[in-house]
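Bit of a strange request maybe. I'm writing a small parser for C-alpha cell strings and I need a real example to test against, not something I typed by hand. Could someone generate the C-alpha cells for this chain?
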Amino acid sequence: MFSLIGLSEAPFRLGPDPRYFFRTQGHERALQRLYLSIEQKTGLDIIYGDYGTGKSTIAEILLQRYASRDDFVVGRITNPGVPTVFQFYKLLLDGFGVEVKGHSTLNYSRALESFALDTNLAENKNILLIIDEGESLSPTFIDVLRTVLNFETPTQKFIQMTILAQLELIIKMKRKRNFVSRINMSYALNPLERDETKGLIEHRLRQAGWKGTPIWFPEETIDVIFERSKGIPRSITSICREGLNQAIINGDDCISVATIIPIAEEEARIYGERKITKL
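Reply from user aminoacidic:
Good idea to test on real output. This should exercise your parser:
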C-alpha cells in the first residue's frame, strides 16, 4: 500500500525501532551521559519521562550498543512488576541467562552476587542491567537494587544499572534515601517542541523512503498535531499514522487539518487528556 505513495514501509509504526528514533537534543544528551556513566562504571543512572517520550527506545539503543561488545554482559528487564522478592531476583538472573540450583530467595541472592563477582574479576567483563518501566518497582524491590549496588570494590561498581521510568518512581524513592544517594546521574525527557515535532515527522518519512515531496504534512497540520499531542512522540506518531492512512484511503495528496482534528479527538476520547509535567 505504501509503495503507491513512494514509501518503502509504514513510517509511523509504534514500537522501539532505533531506525525511526528521532534524536532530539534532549535524547542525545541523555544517551551521551549514559554512555559516559556506563563506561566509567559509576553505578546507577535513572532516565525519567512521561509515557511515550522515548524511554523504551533508549533502552533498546543501549541494549544494541553494549550487547554486541565482548567486554559487556547485558541484561534487560522490560517489566519489573512481579509479586514477590523471589520472583524479582529470578527476573534479574533470567535477564542475564543465569541458572540457579535451589529455589529460595537466599540462593538467588547469593547466585546474583557470585555472578557479579565472577564476571567482573574472573572474566574481566562489565555488567549492565537495564530496567524499563521502572515506575513498577515496589519499595521492597528498590531495597533489593540498593543491595545489588553494594556489589563493588573501592574503585568500581560490579553492576552498572540504568532505570527508565515514569515520574511516579520519584514519589516511591522519597523515603529511600540510601538508594537515592547512590544515583550517579538522572535526566528527564521532556515533551518535544514544535520544531522538534516537525523534525520527528519528517525523519520518520525519510526513513521510509520519502524524498521531500509531496508535502504530506503542511505547516498548519503540524501546528495542530503539536497542539493536540502535547509534544509526546508516541502520540505524534499515532496521530500521523492515522492521518496518513486516511490520506491513502481517500486519495489525498496531503493530510489536512480537517483530517487530523477528529483523529486527535478520538485518541483523546480513548486515552484521556494528557497532563504533561516538564522537569
